[in-house]
Task: structure prediction
Amino acid sequence: MQSMAEIFSRQKKSFYFLLALFGLGWFLLDYRTIFAGLILGSLFGMYNFWILVRRMERFDQAITEEKRAKSLGMGLRFASGVAATAIALAMPEEFDLISTVIGLMIPYLLLFTGHLLFHLKH
Result:
């Protein structure tokens, strides 16, 4: 079984590649607001995933030490998602709202596809 740190490091490599593609799309194509929204949402989505990984490691440590475990930080992740959409709503000429919301889900889609590929190999 893989640890969350291993999954997160593999996820970061895929995320940086995808972020570079979004950056190229923003730079080369005429759909700047869409690619800017994808970049904004992806950055906030990766931040949310990082928070989840960090909290899960603390949660696992608390369980193994038989201490009381704190929450997994759902409120902070929701607030981060609200912040990304608020930025997109405040600056509609710079960021597309729909692509920002799609970008928030990209780290979880990468996690799902990575999980499928891992189990198909093994």
User: Anything to note?
Assistant: The CA atoms of residues 47 and 94 lie 21 Å apart. The longest helix spans residues 32-64.
